[in-house]
Write a structure and sequence with these properties.
5-stranded parallel β-sheet; about 40% helix; Rossmann fold; homohexamer; alpha/beta; 5 strands; globular
């Protein structure tokens, strides 16, 4: 079973939310090792630099064993192969995610038939929380501390105070 | 990790399709043991008896190691607990599945916070194949051998010849 | 091109609505002949007999040339082949139709690669009108004359007066 | 503004859930009087009699002012007119509700242009809770006390103990 | 009930369409005062300046009593609180709106539990009309006078003649 | 029937995929002439110039009779009228397409009641393939030769080698 026990969780984490953290935590109960793979480039509407995003994840997963943080820059199927992994974890939050995820799962299993994507439903408590929505409301001065790890709430406040 | 390596795949399997079989096969690569849990009661539009459904599954998974067939009669959370398992596998075929699955995942994790549902996307090749659609077209005399294991195609032909 | 100019429009027409009629009319502009194929059996919640449904369609399409009414009892792919047709017309009203239609289109083109389903969007004016919703509200005494041909409105009134 | 301050909330309430109760409570803040209109007939999969359903609602809304419980037997537009009301409240839980609600809103405003349906989103806390799902899991012996008023949890336990 | 009778209708109105106007009109029948809150900033694909958008709304609602036009620049929950209002009105046009609206409703009621969003379905007649689609087709020279107030049609023609 | 036998298939074809090609092929069986109408301007995320896109289509449809390639620059309804056509072909791939297509179909039939849009479901084999997804994964070095005509695969490789 060896390398089936390594799972890669790729996202842009801009920033990491309580929803992401919940998924990472649950994944550590399913797999022996979970690689949090931070996308190097983010959308134009991106807020935090790669370094900042990694810092915030590091703080958030400090208490979790068997979690590794890494940077992904290129094709997911290639990255997973290099890591010696076969399993990718994705969260499903809303219907709008579903079709994109379906297309990507089909594409990826075409490019590597040995590649498997495993989906977890985002917890009811966090399903309406997305990084993009948080960036949007935080830019208007909203307090997002209920939806993100402590460090992230502080960083977001600083970010928008400065800007 | 122990019991995290046992996954339960509950469905009515009326009858088992190539889509189900594909999911079982892929699950054996993710978990050490996969329990195919056949629902005792099926919908009013059901076709095969519990015994027939189990027979067809047995034939279909004969070449797969580490697969167990069992009957589930009651609440899924209770069954999973009794089995000493924590993980349930479900296939996502179409958007229409999504909301039902989301509701059930939320319900189940409320009833047992330690309960985890893992979703796999049905393969592109079989995503438009469902047991109910097959029962429908087979009842009009369609040949469904392309979509189901050999034994099932034969049984369906018999069923509708007799009826 | 010959037989490509014959299109089959299968539905249960229980009863025919203005939405159906609109689709038939538009189809006659796309194809040389349109076969309105009435499903022999309808759902348990059915209202009108096969004869009644055909009568109402006859009345509604009386002014349309090149429309034929027929009964379909069996597999659609078989029926279409017997008719020497290759094209099936379906209306898309709502998202909920979409996935069922997608599955059926895939199934049918698997069973007969030469089979083509052509979809038309239901007109904005009638997109919220379905036979089942009309049966539901008419059973509570609603006047549905705005949504169906004249004859149908009258028949529905009689039906529910009697019952 | 007078009769615009009366809102009718029609549903089958089989049984009333915490989601329903949340909606009734929020509606009393929007309208001067809220009529909880219990559908006389329920689906074949119904569980409680009209009397039982009304009893459970009565218990649940005992602390709420300006809430009236009534029975609706017929067309909603007619009922609303008789009540001298113009506003109907509906909860939106999931996408699957959306299209049905859209069709009904269109139908109703066609039948009475002065009729207005107002939608509230079900609270995040209860959005995955529906009466039908609760009946389903309670029938397998699940404890649903987290999702329904106290009295309802007790009645459901009795119902399934007896059956 | 006092401040429950003030409802805020926030949107970018770039430009106001017949769909918006229909919603404003219906809202004045539900609430004593309706504040049309024009978002200060619009998307990059925006067409009209804040002043132009306000002018066109003013013209369109001239015949409606109890409608106020205001500018919103910041977080909606903050704006609503400052206005002494509790109710926000939103139109639901298509399924694609639904999940965004659900997320925002959850977010907003988390940030202010006393905040209520009320949804109205866009009328059948206008449900396929959106400001962004109109900007798109008008930019290709389409006449949009059927879908917008007279003044808006004229302004759009000027805008695209000049550009 | 004359001009009903000319169908316009408008898209940006950036680049043409096997899914597009499948639709063009099937359309030639339904209509006497199929005009592949290439949109002059593409989204900001566009990859190929108009000339490159036309070249690739030319190569791909070389074996198909009765297919014409043209450029569309303006309103679709205007273009179709100038061509003396009445029928537009569109592919439906995923639910996400559906609402956009519905809106456009309604808009277009409002602007020209004689305008008809005909939808075909993308083949099961290609339904998860879109130009935008291919551009995305090819930019990361993925081999897309399985999803596009030979010439296109080569051009995409060159494009991303150069960039």
């Amino acid at each position: 079973m060896s390398d089936r026990s390594v799972a890669v969780y790729p996202a842009s984490f801009d920033p990491i939310t309580n929803g992401h953290l919940d998924l990472i935590t649950r994944s550590t109960r399913l797999f022996e090792r979970v690689v949090v793979a931070v996308g190097k480039n983010v959308a134009k509407s991106g807020l935090f630099s790669l370094e900042e995003r990694i810092d915030m994840i590091s703080g958030a997963v400090a208490d979790l064993d068997r979690v590794e943080i890494d940077v992904i820059d290129g094709l997911l199927v290639d990255y997973v192969r290099e890591k010696g992994a076969h399993v990718v974890i994705r969260g499903l939050r809303v219907l709008a995610d579903f079709e994109y995820e379906f297309e990507m799962a089909m594409m990826n299993s075409h490019m590597n038939p040995d590649f498997e994507t495993v989906y977890l439903m985002t917890s009811a408590r966090w399903f309406f929380v997305s990084s993009s929505r948080l960036r949007e409301i935080a830019s208007f001065g909203a307090d997002v501390s209920e939806f993100v790890p402590k460090l992230v709430a502080q960083k977001m406040k600083e970010k928008f105070a400065r800007s």
